[in-house]
Inverse folding.
């Protein structure tokens, strides 16, 4: 009786409700656990050094290390989740941050999957497709990496030097260009603003105008580019200067 | 999102002219392929667009390096 009732209820509920009430809480629960586990495991090598070999760096060195890491990467801790989440979706964000290589691998995979399945980014459907795309990319990544380590290194080394360099240097810019174009296609005005903001900020950095900032001032460029674009496009949206559909 | 990739893309543009060519050609290729996929409703072009744009962008980078070299 009770079983029948539950079954009845679950068929009555819409896909959206299942997504909101079952899928997202489940993903949040396991996403948090697995990501926190990854944080704990990251301390593994240091713990081995400490417990097995009894090596402990002086406190000053640890502090100095932390400060330089925060200076160089701290801005990314805020900017990456905020700016990638709309595309990656809930589960995609957990998976992407667990597996790494977000901007050059997970995000393009997620975006390509959502483009191919023709779902709208930011919707529950997009979230599911993004999850599948990222899961696929992780499996392919691990498979190719295993095969690559065993066999492809010699093939790579047999390539002429020009092509070795090319694969290392120019593939990633081509991905960035393509992904930027894919998303920029829907909002050309925002794309133009994003590009010019980032370009101006990069030029300012290049000519040393951010030298007064502490640490590596690359974070100034990121903040200007990401948050500047966000605020300007929000402002334009409120004034009806950009539409909801293409 | 566009801000983040604007930053990533211009960061590569600053690294030199072959990088600029890679970014630009990768982007234009993507636009062209998605446009064809949309206007003729060809699904497989949509699926292969990113991969193709990547390879073409890669070739554009190599071509620029060989012909023009680093202009900046």
């Amino acid at each position: 009786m009770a079983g029948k009732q539950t079954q009845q209820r679950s068929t009555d509920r819409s896909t959206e409700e299942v997504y909101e009430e079952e899928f997202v809480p489940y993903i949040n629960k396991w996403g948090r656990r697995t990501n926190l586990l990854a944080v704990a495991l990251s301390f593994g090598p240091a713990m081995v050094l400490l417990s097995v070999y009894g090596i402990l760096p002086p406190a000053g060195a640890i502090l100095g290390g932390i400060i330089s890491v925060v200076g160089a990467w701290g801005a990314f801790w805020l900017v990456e989740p905020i700016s990638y989440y709309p595309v990656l979706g809930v589960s995609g964000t957990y998976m992407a941050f667990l597996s790494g290589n977000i901007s050059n691998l997970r995000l393009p995979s997620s975006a390509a999957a959502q483009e191919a399945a023709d779902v709208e980014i930011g919707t529950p459907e997009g979230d599911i497709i993004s999850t599948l795309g990222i899961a696929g990319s992780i499996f392919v990544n691990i498979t190719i990496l295993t095969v690559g380590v065993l066999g492809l290194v010699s093939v790579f080394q047999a390539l002429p030097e020009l092509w070795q360099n090319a694969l290392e240097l120019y593939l990633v810019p081509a991905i960035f260009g393509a992904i930027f174009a894919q998303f920029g296609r829907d909002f050309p005005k925002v794309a133009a603003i994003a590009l010019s903001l980032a370009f101006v900020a990069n030029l300012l950095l290049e000519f040393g105008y951010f030298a007064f900032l502490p640490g590596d001032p690359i974070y100034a460029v990121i903040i200007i580019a990401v948050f500047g674009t966000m605020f300007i496009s929000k402002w334009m949206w409120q004034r009806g200067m950009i539409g909801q559909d293409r | 999102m566009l801000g983040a990739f604007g930053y990533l893309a211009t960061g590569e543009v600053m690294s030199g002219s072959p990088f600029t060519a890679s970014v630009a050609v990768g982007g234009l290729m993507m636009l062209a392929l998605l446009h064809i996929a949309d206007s003729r409703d060809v699904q497989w072009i949509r699926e292969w667009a990113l991969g193709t744009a990547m390879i073409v962008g890669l070739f554009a980078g190599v071509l620029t390096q060989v012909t023009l070299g680093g202009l900046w």
